[in-house]
Amino acid sequence: MKHAVFFDIDGTLLDEHMQIPKSAITAIRKLRDNGDFAFLCSGRTRVNIYTKELLEDIGFDGIIAGCGTHIEYHGSDVFEKTIPQEEMKRLLALFRQWNIPVVLESRKYLFADMEDFSDDPYILNLKQELGGLFCPLAEYAYVNKFTANWKKGAKEQIIKELSCDYELLFHEKQYVEGMPKGFSKATGIQWICSYLGIDHKNTYAFGDSVNDLEMLTYVANGIAMGNATDDAKQAADYVTAPLNEDGIYKGLKHFSLI
């Protein structure tokens, strides 16, 4: 029976310089050469998963993107969940009322008003990298999820108004990810495992932060990176070395997957 291993991207495969350790590339290639599945499992939507190192140098069997709202297998789209257009109008009206900058994320595009992020180096770099795939907020369509830079005092409002319809993940740097209710990296893993007939006991996941908690808890073997947040380490079954200390290689080796 094949094993399936799911990898978060930021902080798990990619470091702060957007580099992947060579040992991780070697390890995941070996995992697949052994006949097992390797999947990316990210909070990023598909348009934001574009680097050559991820898509070509390693090579994955599939991608779970947007915290379970989009799933791709061997280059084909097999699942998609979007937020209805009427609901998007309500959502944007609330963010405008709260004066909170937001990025709307879809499979093909990102949508934001750049004047709201003029001092955000991550968003500015993303705009440069994606070019015409990074569009004005008014052009939004087929949105999978959102990321908002919430301000002091707005957290309670966000929870009160949105928690009934969205899964909300609050990160340390005052931004919140929102997905349709009932969707997470864990639901994406559950869906693709059912689709491919993968036994739950043969599932593994590597992660490092708050949007990995459900994934690390759901799989049979959750693996936190040595550089992970404390809550991710507590959710995991095993803590491997940090990303830049061959954490992926050592984690796969620990479970005899390579």
In short:
By secondary structure, the chain is an alpha/beta fold. It contains nine helices and 14 strands. Strands 5-4-3-2-1-12-13-14 form an eight-stranded mixed β-sheet. It has a six-stranded mixed β-sheet with strand order 8-7-6-9-11-10.
Query: In angstroms, what is the radius of gyration?
Result: 18 Å
Count of all domains: 2
The major pleated sheet works out as: 8 strands, mixed
Strands, total number: 14
CATH architectural designation of the largest domain: 3-Layer(aba) Sandwich
**Any idea of the CATH topology of the largest domain?**
Rossmann fold
Strand content: 15-25%
Helix content: 25-40%
The average pLDDT is: 94
Q: Whole-Å distance between the termini?
A: 15 Å
CATH H-level superfamily of the largest domain: HAD superfamily/HAD-like
- Strand arrangement, major sheet: 5-4-3-2-1-12-13-14
Class by helix and strand content? alpha/beta
Total helices: the number is 9
Q: Shape from CA axes?
A: globular
- Spell the H/E element sequence: EHEHEEEHEEHEEHEEHEHEHEH
The first-level CATH class of the largest domain is given as Alpha Beta
Low-pLDDT residue spans: none
